Every structure is written in structure tokens, then in C-alpha cells.
Amino acid sequence: MLKLYNTLSRKIESFKPLHPPKVGFYSCGPTVYDFQHIGNYRTYVGNDLFQRVLSFNGFLVERVMNITDVGHLTSNADTGEDKLEKGAKREGKSVWEIAQFYTKDFFESLKQLNVLTPGVVCKATDHI
């Protein structure tokens, strides 16, 4: 039986999915305006590890991750310049070219790190 630390209850508890043996798992993906750094990849390696632990324990994992390829501001206060526009200006390319280039680089890097690709990857521009 898989046990996890519940930060809400501050106790180690048995993992009980809502619809056993299926587990839905969402994780935030990158904002693709520049190369990712080691701190970014730490998150994806951790998510990969959690997915593998769930699978090893017999759960059927449906993992979803987004790609923010539009509209991410440089400030958390809903002000500032869009990070993709800033990257486009820096490199003399369109926002679309920036998003495509860094999305491709992101997935190539995940492959080099042996990180599993989520079953569902949603780009923001496909849903707005």
C-alpha cells in the first residue's frame, strides 16, 4: 500500500484515488520563452518520479501538463511585458517562432533526462 505525507493533515496517510485504479495527475508545464534551467527541470523530474511511483504501485496514471505559449507577464501583479513578446524582441523572431523553438527544446531536454512525457500535453493557444 502506498503511503504519502499529507501536508493538510500533517500525517502520513494511505493513498486512496477517487476512481481506483485510475489516478488523474495535473502538473504545470513551462512558459516557453527561453531555455529552461536546472530549477525548472527539477520540477519535471519530481513529477516524473511521482508518476513512476504511482505506476509501480499498480495505478493507471493519466498525467496532464500544460504549455504556456502565450500571455505570461513578467510580473505576478498582472503588469509588465509578456515574456514571449520579450523573447521575440530579444531574438528578432515572432512570438509563434519563439514558442515553437523553446517547446521543441523543452521536450528534447526531457528526453535527455529520461523524463516521461505526460499522456496529455495542452498548449494554451489550443484552448483560447
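Second entry:
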Amino acid sequence: MTMCRRFPRHGKWRQICVNWWIYALLIPPFALLAVFTLIPIAQSFVLSFQHWTLRSVIWIGLGNYRRLLFEDRVFYIALRNTFVYTATVVPISLLVSLILAELIRTLRPSVQTFFKGAYYLPGVVSGVVLVMIWRWIYLPERTGLLNFLLSLVGQEPVLWLAYENTALASVIGMTIAGGNGAAIVMLLAAAGGIPAELYESARLDGSNRFSEWWYISLPLLRPSILYLAVMGTIGSFQVFTSTLLLTKGGPNYGTTTVVLWLWKQGFDYFDFGYASTIAVALFLVILVFSALLFRLLASEVEF
């Protein structure tokens, strides 16, 4: 403490000196962040300017970026698939989560607990296990659950994963059906903080259940909706496990996403420099879309 007296009383360095132990406690987590996140990101950026395989490392400047923008047809197919996936999954998942959360909110607490657990359960199951279940659901002929149900109403079986127009839709359907548990729980927790007096006053004024949801719940849930939209967008742009295990990116690159194409460049073709270039491009795309979401949704949100 005596050492700190040489700094001005209300100066920044005086505060740092007095509270040195706080900054000391921040050093270990920051060191872990630097070693496992910041340094690999910087290395990936440097790698994007190199042709780096298991045999050689050659500095090629903007060669990888030129290849990405003007020569790699599959990258644009993967980018389109990723955009379609994100533009479909994020809004539909949000809407489904909002509706289910509102329906559950009106139930008794014990029943709410049951439905919270039921919807959250798929979230704690391994993604690999979920994909294996959905592969069985999408099996051809009548051995798959979906085609079996179609046969009950006289419909012919569909090869869900064999055609481009149904394969991507099947991946999207799997994500929407099994990936809303965490969002529902979060929205229910946020809705629990809304004063009950607001709903009671609305009922006295003759409002119905939809009006309460539209004019009370939705506006007060905007911070949670913003968070789920941004995190859902980031997660959707990084979709990988479901496309790899369910379709392996096929048929004819119909379900190849940017991260899957990145993975193939790095671990199938061992072109780590070009894989890093795709990673940098994906980072920029996610950054732009996250900023747009904040601009569109955060204008009236108080944090």
C-alpha cells in the first residue's frame, strides 16, 4: 500500500496498484485464452498466406485468396448451402422456441418442469447419437420411420438423403426438430422475470392470450431473442457434425457447408494453408452477419 502513494490519488495507476490482486487473478484465464484461442487465430491468419502441406511450407501471398474467390466452385456451393441452412434454421427455430415457451409458461409449475426436461434432453445427448437416430428415421424404403409413416397413408417411400433438393431439407429438419431445448429453457427463464401484474392488467382490459404474448412477452424478451439470434447464426454458419455424419456433404455437394469444405481441405487433402483461408473468410462472414443482427435487433434493447 505504501508503494501506491507515489501515484496520484485518483489516477489510473493508483487504482491498479491498490487492486493488483484482481489483475493477478485475471492472468491465468487470459493466458489460457491467449494460448488456446488468440495465438491459434493469429497463426491461422498467417497460414492463409502460405501453401502448407505435410511436406513443405511455401509463402504464396494472396494466392489462396485468389483461388478462393475465382477458382473454387465448391466453396460457393458450400457458401450457398450454409446461407440457406442459416436463413431457414435460425428464424424457424426462434419462432418454434418462442411459441413453445409461451405455451409452457401458462402451465402449472410441475408440468413446466416436465416439459423443460423433455425439450432439453436432446441437448445433453451426443450429437453423434442424435445423427444416428435421424439416419434411422430417414432410411429408405419402409425401414425408416418417416417412410413407414408415409406408407400408412398410401405414399411411396422417399429417398430423403439421395437427392439434392431433399438432403439439405432433411438436415435442416433434423436441426429444427432437435435443437430448441436450450432456447426454450432460456426464454422461459427470461419470461419468469416479467412482472405478473402486466398480464393481469392486460386481462382486465380484455386482452386475449395472443395479445399478451405479442404486446407484453415479445417486447420484454428482446434481449434474449437477440442473444439467441446471434448465437444461432454463429452456430449455423459453423454447422459441421450433422452434415458430415448424415450425408458426408453429398449428394453432389448438395449438403456441403463451409466448415465441412474447410475440414476436407485440411484433413482430406492436407492443404492447411487453403483451409486457413476458408476459416478467415468464414470469420469475416460471421462478423458481418452478427453486426447486422445487432444493428437490426439491438436498437431498442436495454442491456
